[in-house]
Amino acid sequence: MRGATILKASDDKTRQLNKHTLYIQANAQLYSMRNETDLSPTALAHYVRGQLATSLRSRKPYNVNLLLGGVDPITHKPSLFWLDYLAALAPVPYAAHGYAQYYCLSILDKHHHPDMTLVQGIKVLEMCTDELKRRLPIDFKGMIVKAVTKDGIRDIEFNDDKVVKCP
Amino acid sequence: MVGKDCVAIACDLRLGLQALTVSNNFPKVFQYGDNVFLGLTGLATDVSTVSDLFRYKVNMYRLREERAIAPSTFANLVSSSLYERRFGPYFVSPVVAGLDPKTGAPFICGFDSIGCIDFAKDFIVSGTASEQLFGMCESLWEPNLGPEDLFETISQALLSAVDRDALSGWGAHVYVIEKNKVTKRLLKGRQD
């Protein structure tokens, strides 16, 4: 989106940090090559926070909010980090950014369980997107859903054609 | 908060954007060495940045001097580090608590965001609930509390204060520092 004009309706905003390129991706990749192992999500989150915190007090700070999800390459423990443009980092069980926080967090508060399966998780995610469709005054262009597992990242089929009407 | 041959330091666990709570697992008290503690309130990004900065500085001090840093030395380090940023400060109000490694005397002090030290012999408060904390500490604290009584006093003061502040709470960490012993306790607190 650029002002009131939609430039692209299906832009994938997720990036796999131990593949691809660009600055942080490149540095994560460099670490993996040097040490012949991938960074843990915690280490990577703190690295990204460091970069963002340095940039915050520079002449032209980065203006991005991110959610970092990952599975530890050694312990196979999954983790999620919430990081905003001010470089405030928090480990969280579930998270959202922007206006979506107001709608999604309360749903997740009620329905999230620490030992949920992927299928149950997708169901809760669907409840979240339904709520966004219902309450947010935007033209909803659909979602990209990916699962990060210990074996890698895979795309998830996600039905976002369902029309939800506000009561 | 100072007791008899012991000190206690405590913080809540909330991280929020104005009225929206993002996380209830964001500790604000950090340990540097055996008996030096730093509490940080204010802008979350600066809480992390400043705590990381002092971890680096204290580790460098320990390597250079081959001994642990004393709380009063650490307090002066905090003060000068914050004043270095006089015209573009870190938005934090730190609190230092610890026991002197030689004498075992309790030491506490607080700072403003540009490093002016506020020494005290009873208690130091900081953060959004500081007014409530002042009231609670003023009425509950008494001189020469033992470690167990000090824990009870600081916990009740903190929990009661944060329950009156919409921007604080969601659990707490309490450290009681004695000679050769540090006890960390997690208080669940109100989660609403």
UniProtKB/TrEMBL annotation, chain A:
Keywords on record: Cytoplasm, Nucleus, Proteasome
GO cellular component labels = cytoplasm; nucleus; proteasome core complex
Per its UniProt record, what InterPro entries does this chain match?
Ntn_hydrolases_N, Proteasome_beta2, Proteasome_sua/b
Q: Can the keyword Protein transport be found in this entry's annotation?
A: no
Q: Does the keyword Nucleus apply?
A: yes
In terms of SUPFAM superfamilies, this protein maps to: N-terminal nucleophile aminohydrolases (Ntn hydrolases)
Question: Pfam families per the record?
Answer: Proteasome (PF00227)
* Gene3D superfamilies, sorted: Glutamine Phosphoribosylpyrophosphate, subunit 1, domain 1 (3.60.20.10)
Give the UniProt subcellular location, in the record's own words: Cytoplasm; Nucleus
Gene Ontology BP annotations = proteasomal protein catabolic process
May I ask which residue range the UniProt record assigns to the signal sequence? none
Family of this protein = Belongs to the peptidase T1B family.
Q: How does the annotation summarize its subunit structure?
A: The 26S proteasome consists of a 20S proteasome core and two 19S regulatory subunits. The 20S proteasome core is composed of 28 subunits that are arranged in four stacked rings, resulting in a barrel-shaped structure. The two end rings are each formed by seven alpha subunits, and the two central rings are each formed by seven beta subunits. The catalytic chamber with the active sites is on the inside of the barrel. Component of the proteasome complex.
Function noted in UniProt: Component of the proteasome, a multicatalytic proteinase complex which is characterized by its ability to cleave peptides with Arg, Phe, Tyr, Leu, and Glu adjacent to the leaving group at neutral or slightly basic pH. The proteasome has an ATP-dependent proteolytic activity.
Name-wise, this protein is Proteasome subunit beta
- Organism source for this protein? Xylaria bambusicola
Automatic annotation (TrEMBL), chain B:
Assigned keywords, A-Z? Cytoplasm, Nucleus, Proteasome
A Pfam family this chain is assigned to: Proteasome
Q: Does the keyword Nucleus apply?
A: yes
Q: Which InterPro entries match?
A: Ntn_hydrolases_N (IPR029055), Proteasome_beta_3 (IPR033811), Proteasome_sua/b (IPR001353), Proteasome_suB-type (IPR023333)
What are the subcellular locations of this protein? Nucleus
Nucleus as a keyword of this entry, yes or no, is yes
Under PANTHER family, the record lists: METALLOPROTEASE TLDD, PROTEASOME SUBUNIT BETA TYPE-3
* Oligomer status and interactors: The 26S proteasome consists of a 20S proteasome core and two 19S regulatory subunits. The 20S proteasome core is composed of 28 subunits that are arranged in four stacked rings, resulting in a barrel-shaped structure. The two end rings are each formed by seven alpha subunits, and the two central rings are each formed by seven beta subunits. The catalytic chamber with the active sites is on the inside of the barrel.
The name this protein carries in UniProt is Proteasome subunit beta
- Native species: Xylaria bambusicola
